[in-house]
Design a protein that fits this description.
This protein is an alpha/beta fold. It has a single domain, classed as FAD/NAD(P)-binding domain (3-Layer(bba) Sandwich), CATH 3.50.50.60. It is about 20% helix and about 25% strand. The strands form 4 sheets. Strands 9-2-1-10-18-17 form a 6-stranded mixed β-sheet, covered by helices on one side. Helix 1 runs parallel beside helix 3. The two termini are about 20 Å apart.
Length: about 325
């Protein structure tokens, strides 16, 4: 039977979209090229669930982060409700009506939480399956039309640009260092125009703390940790947590950043009939995933009420 909606990509955004479509009653097929879910960008996300307190007001990214905050407790994944503090926060924070309070020059944001990004992705996949979605692992797609669906959602992360020449994606590497330490909340530095800086944050594993990420723009995927990253991360991490010891491990993650600043490319492809792009979803993708899924389902026209929505979607084919 032809799947009415096909989703390319088994990361957190793809799984969230599959779960939302299936929850609304659509026939859903999710395909993932790898033999497991969350093996690329999603699996090496920091795991921080942001509130949008520092996001650009009025942007689509901010709208979707704010919407996701109200939905994240419905995901059966580990959640550490630790909150965060930003040292020397700019006077314009918090933005977007997010609950926060000033303590001297610091800003305390109680709604900033931490999860396990792999577990979060798998929990969304379980939701999708529970509502009848089919998930095929190890299935590589070269042409979206081979899926024979009414709508194909391009949530391929670092590979999303391959299906539609209207936008580009490149890998931005973030290097992280792992410590044995105790920490009761996320420590945030004041951001720069390019990056949120080096964070120090607890994890859902007691006694494990992580510092990072760096921000290194690449042309090709590279998962190695640079030799110079250690000193760069430790110096900045110890500015917010002076007694931080020596790292016990390190790893790198790759975020799908948009070319020429074009992030959160969500909409119908101008070049491929029936393809809805969900591309260049940068490091906030975990935080915004649930809002993204609702937005995408709304764009396609799938409501929670049974309807012949695919006839409306056909105008994009």
């Amino acid at each position: 039977m032809t799947s009415r909606v096909a989703v390319i990509g088994g990361g957190v955004v793809g799984c969230a979209c599959a779960a939302e479509f299936a929850r609304r009653g659509a026939d859903v097929l999710l395909v993932e090229a790898e033999d497991g879910l969350a093996l690329w960008a999603s699996g090496t996300n920091s795991g921080i669930l942001h509130t949008g307190f520092d996001s650009e007001p009025g942007s689509l990214e901010t709208e979707l982060i704010l919407r996701s905050v109200a939905l994240r407790e419905r995901v059966a994944a580990p959640l550490l409700r630790c909150g965060a503090v930003m040292r020397g926060a700019p006077p314009e924070y918090p933005r977007n009506g997010v609950d926060a309070m000033r303590e001297g020059g610091d800003l305390v944001i109680p709604g900033e939480w931490v999860t396990d990004p792999v577990a979060f992705t798998h929990a969304l996949a379980a939701q999708a399956r529970g509502h009848g979605a089919q998930i095929e692992l190890g299935r590589r797609v070269d042409d979206p039309r081979e899926l024979e669906a009414d709508v194909v959602v391009n949530a391929a992360g670092l590979g999303a640009g391959a299906f539609d020449g209207s936008f580009g994606v490149y890998p931005r590497k973030g290097e992280f260092f792992v410590f044995e330490a105790e920490l009761d909340r996320i420590l945030l530095p004041a951001p720069t125009p390019r990056t949120k800086g080096i964070l120090v944050f607890p994890t859902v594993v007691p006694g494990i703390v992580i510092a990072g990420p760096t921000a290194v723009d690449l042309e090709e995927p590279d998962w190695s940790v640079r030799a110079e990253a250690r000193d760069e991360v430790l110096a900045r991490a110890r500015e917010v947590l002076p007694d931080l010891g020596e790292p016990i491990d390190s790893y790198a993650g790759l975020r799908p950043a948009g070319r020429d600043g074009a992030n959160y490319v969500i909409g119908w492809s101008p070049t491929v009939d029936g393809l809805l792009n969900v591309g260049a979803i940068r490091s906030t993708g975990l935080s915004a995933s649930l809002g993204i899924a609702e937005h995408v389902a709304d764009l396609v026209g799938v409501s929670s009420t049974p309807s012949r929505w695919w006839e409306r979607a056909a105008r994009h084919r």
